[in-house]
Amino acid sequence: MGHPLTLASPWFVGAFEHIMHALQTGGTGFEKAMGMPVFQYLAQNPEDAALFNDTMIGFHGSEPAAVADAYDFSQFRTVVDVDGGTGNLLSTILHRHNGPRGVLFDMPHVIANAAPLLKERGVEERVSLEGGNLFEGVPALGDAYVLSHVLHDWTEEQCVTILDHCRSRMQPQGLLLIVEMVLPEGDTAHPGKMLDMVMLLVPGGQERTEAQYAALLERAGFRLVRVVPTASAVSIVEAVIT
Q: Residue 212: which domain range?
């Protein structure tokens, strides 16, 4: 239900009405239309935020199972899902892999809506909920840090800040796992290229190629190890601390 209500909403449509503003200035269409950044708006409008969370679950519906199947999460003790929403991906991973525990980290108003889904998936006792702002810090001592559709929301400098927090808090031998639509080079068709436009106009971020992720990770003290494809449009970018 949230999907069409979000995509047809004045705040989403308004962002696209200001596409020329975004192209000419580098600012977002959303902020031009609504007078504030999108995540500030959602924090102040809980009904729209709830619809947005439902939309993300619907839009990325096939991805969590594909990610859980494509990667061996059973090797970890603690999986930290940074800005993990209401736990759709984390709960799928934990349901598929019995070994690890999870930490679901997001803004307090988002975490407040997580319990029903975790209970429905039968993993509520294996997940700790932590509310906070990823630009101020992330939970400590995980051995896997998952960033699913997080980095594409932000500018290069903001991404480096997020990655710095992960690097400083994770176990030294831990892994960083970035779940995103990794763009193919050149003119090869890919759904991530349409999503790239949404990122430009709504939060002000972008989708990236493998080479762009490698360069970004290097700036933040990580090394890209491999890109693991999944049965969905997303891939898993695996990185280690250098």
A: 62-241
